[in-house]
Amino acid sequence: MRAKWRIVLISITLVSLILLGFLSVLCSGTSTPAQAYEIKDLSGIQIPDYASPGLFPIEETIQEILVRTQAEVADTPRNPQSLLLKWSDYIRYIDTGMSLSDQQLDDLVYLVTVDVTRRPRETTRQDIYIFDARTGETLGVGYTPFAMILPKR
After folding, report:
1. ∠ CA 39-43-44 to the nearest 5 degrees?
2. Rounded to an integer, what distance in angstroms lies between the CA atom of residue 61 and that of residue 54?
3. pTM for the full model?
4. H-helix or E-strand containing 15?
5. CA distance 22 to 54
6. What would the pLDDT profile of 89-129 be if each residue is shown by its tens digit?
7. b/e map of 26-39 (b: 16 or more CB within 10 Å)?
8. CA dist list (Å): 48 to 45, 71, 118
């Protein structure tokens, strides 16, 4: 009788080890996290139009970003979006965790996003750039594991 229980216990242990090994293979990072497919729709937020003469023309910079990014990604970067907003609006509505300690709440910035497809294990969906709207200076560069839809102007 003891021998049968011992065989049953050994069998259960072996089956458990096999199942644990199978689960570890499934969770080994070969799949893409669910967050990588999320979309953050910000198209409904109301941001005043801050456009005025003398601001840096962002369109040429966006084209340069697309050219530089092309060399780093697995597919053609697409859907560039830009938004002129105050730094306080960025913190309030969009904040991606990018910390720019020198910025004042009333400073105007351009937020530029570009949809990218990187290597399979990377979860980046968008590259993010923040530029000073007066000088064109790059203030920050980052990425998100989700795609943002910015308000249209």
Report:
1. 120
2. 16
3. 0.72
4. helix 2-26
5. 61
6. 998 888 777 777 788 999 999 999 999 887 766 667 899 99
7. eeeeeeeeeeeeee
8. 10, 35, 34
